[in-house]
Amino acid sequence: MARKKLIAGNWKMNCLTAEGTDLAKTIAAEVKKMGKPECEFLVCPPFTLLGTVKKSLRGTKVALGAQDCHFAEKGAHTGDISPLMLTDLGCKYVILGHSERRADHLESNELINKKAVAAHKAGLKTVICIGETLAEREAGKAIDVCKEQILGSVPDDSTAADTVIAYEPVWAIGTGKVPTTNDVEEVHAAVRKVLAKKLGKSNANKMRILYGGSVKPSNAKELLSLSDVDGALIGGASLKADDFIAIAKNAGC
Ligand code: 13P
């Protein structure tokens, strides 16, 4: 089953206007030079830059995404952003359940599921994040934790067209540490199995499962050539256009 790789940048809480505009424009120009790339490209700036970056990406092959959303369409939720507000700004994707949100904002699987249902209803594609902590990995529970997160946070009617899974071991995020290729393969295969049970084989075979956590140009080829790895969710290295593009090229895009 051929799945088009997704190369996604999660800018997290970084970049002011000038830097973000420059980054988006440089990435878009480099992607243009690639002609007809084999991969899809996505950047997810902070909320404050969505409108500006949208302009920089107009007419390019780089899609725009947000890093979170609320589950309600509108209303009394001070400081929150609704899925409709994101589509209104031109977003195609939203990242949900990132481990930093699970940790900083105590987001539960149940809440992430509600957000994903609302995002799909508004026409957004979701990138739903899962991944174990170091203590869970050392206790041999990595796969069980990922299974539980998928069962809880992925809506039952999700399809390969509206959902992408991102496996991001918490201990690999921003640390320079990366699991062995065997470990990545093992988790991704287990994730696809759980998805098959939950969403049916056809959806599971078509659904993209990204790897995230210290992806760099130097490890991109090895990680992104694994059979069940369908792209990358990139943090730190997505803030440097050269690195982001080098990752894509090394991944065969
Ligand atoms: P790093 O690439 O900085 O490790 O971050 C990964 C990540 O959290 C992407 O969502």
Helix-strand layout with pairing:
Layout (H helix, E strand, L loop, with lengths): L5 E5 L6 H17 L6 E5 L5 H8 L4 E5 L16 H6 L4 E4 L2 H6 L4 H13 L3 E6 L3 H5 L3 H12 L9 E5 L13 H19 L1 H6 L1 E5 L4 H8 L6 E4 L6 H10 L3
Parallel strand pairs: 1-2, 1-8, 2-3, 3-4, 4-5, 5-6, 6-7, 7-8
Helix pairs in contact: 1-2, 1-11, 5-7, 7-8, 10-11
The structure holds 1,3-dihydroxyacetonephosphate.
1,3-dihydroxyacetonephosphate (13P) binds next to strand 8.
State the gist of this model.
This protein is an alpha/beta fold and 253 residues long. Helix content is 43%, strand content 15%.
Please describe what this structure looks like.
By secondary structure, the protein is an alpha/beta fold. It has a domain at 93-235: Aldolase class I (TIM Barrel, Alpha-Beta Barrel). It has 11 helices and 8 strands. It has helices at residues 17-33, 50-57, 83-88, 99-104, 109-121, 134-138, 142-153, 181-199, 201-206, 217-224, 241-250; strands at residues 6-10, 40-44, 62-66, 93-96, 125-130, 163-167, 208-212, 231-234. An 8-stranded parallel beta barrel has the order 1-2-3-4-5-6-7-8, surrounded by 7 helices. Strand 2 (40-44), helix 2 (50-57) and strand 3 (62-66) form a beta-alpha-beta unit. The longest helix is centred in the last third of the chain and has 19 residues, at 181-199. The chain is globular, with a radius of gyration of 17 Å. The protein starts with 5 loop residues before the first strand and ends with a helix. The model has no long low-confidence stretch (mean pLDDT 97). Bound molecules: 1,3-dihydroxyacetonephosphate.
